[in-house]
Amino acid sequence: MTIRSVSGIALCAVLFAAPAMAQSSGSGSWFGLLRASASGQVAQSVSARDQDPSIITFDARSAEWSDRFDPSSQTLSFTFDTRQPTLSALTADNIQRAIDVYMGIAARGGWGTVPDGPVLRVGLSHKNVAALRQRLIASGDLSANAGVSNTFDTYVEAAVRRFQMRHGLVPDGLVHDQTLVELNVPVEVRIEQLRTNLVRVRSMSGDLGERYVMVNIPAAEVEAVENGVVASRHTAVVGREDRQSPLLAKKIQYISFNPFWTVPKSIIQKDIIPKMREDPTYLQRYKIRIFTWRGEEIDPANVDWNSNEAVDYMLKQDPGDQNSLGSIRINFPNEHAVYLHDTPQQTLFGQNARFHSSGCVRVQNVRQLVDWLLQPNGDWSRAKIDTVVRSGETLDVTLKRQTPIYFAYITAWATSDGVVHFRPDVYNRDGLGVPLAASSI
Length: 441
Hints:
- The chain is an alpha+beta fold.
- It contains 11 helices and 15 strands.
- Among the domains are: 30-197, PGBD-like superfamily/PGBD (Muramoyl-pentapeptide Carboxypeptidase, domain 1, Orthogonal Bundle); 261-318.
- The protein has helices at residues 30-38, 45-51, 89-107, 127-138, 154-166, 177-183, 187-203, 265-278, 282-285, 366-373, 382-391, and strands at 211-216, 221-226, 229-239, 248-257, 261-262, 288-291, 297-298, 314-317, 328-331, 340-341, 355-357, 361-363, 395-408, 412-414, 420-422.
- Helix 1 packs parallel to helix 3 (89-107) and helix 3 (89-107) runs antiparallel to helix 7.
- Keywords: Cell shape, Cell wall biogenesis/degradation, Peptidoglycan synthesis, Signal, Transferase.
């Protein structure tokens, strides 16, 4: 079943030996395939084809340029099911199953590494492709029937994209940089990562509410959950390492349309003052005004930008296209002064490492999330939301039903369709002694 995702990355990959992604740990599931692959018990492709006509078979002896290299082929057609919430007792059970499988891989020597070298891509013939094939087979992303030739064909490309999706990377099918780093994380480290997150998920899988919002910081992702099912999932941008998004549990109380942005003192000191030293027109260009706490507006030219004088004033950005909050802010009063919001910088959602904020969370397709949050109000629709945003009017709307929101730190989890996910330990909280961040912040 294909489930529509609202994240910025299209969820496209393939499971070669079990495209139906059975909902169990039996031989037809991804866990089952992984167990069989790791122990050398993968069935012959002919018999597998007889059991399931949708299975893509592959003759390893003919892995040459004559094989299919059409990226639009069915090898790239699989879509992950996105309905299962990350925080649930079911997720905890799935993590335990994944640990068992990965321990079996470790007992058999683990998986090898892929040497550094040229960018590996479809159509390339290189000795490192054989190592890549072995690595992808070991983790169940590529069928053992694919063989270990030096040819990078569309079967390998689809397996790489699947691997990238499981690790929160842009699924471009290219092996270099972040993808190479993630491929070479030892299985023993992944086992400890799963164990650490099993504890986290179990501790947060109680009664979270009938409707709630969950921000997974390492995944830079937001889930809106209703009745145990993900209603929508959103790509996000979260706090960078030196300005971390906090762990919290609060309730969303109101939505601000076309909001003013009152610049936090920390950002005035760390960002605004240095920018004004470089460009005295910065505040004017970005429609940021300076006020005393009595409400008197001050000319930026009268402020000493070579000191911290500006911290003593209130800097306020007018609503509009350049407003750092975009057109919407989702408010849940908290001691960290963080919130969810829109952003004019939409290109950030397409990056691998989305850790750029000062602690607040920027949400892609935020209007869909707001539409869901306002459903209990009964008098709001997506069309009304769009109309208010276009009007430019600053408006606060109180939720008739306050919605719980949780900021969590989950770097590894598994779903019932057998897919094991990993994300970078951006704040170094897993205690593994190995940097798992896919790229520098």
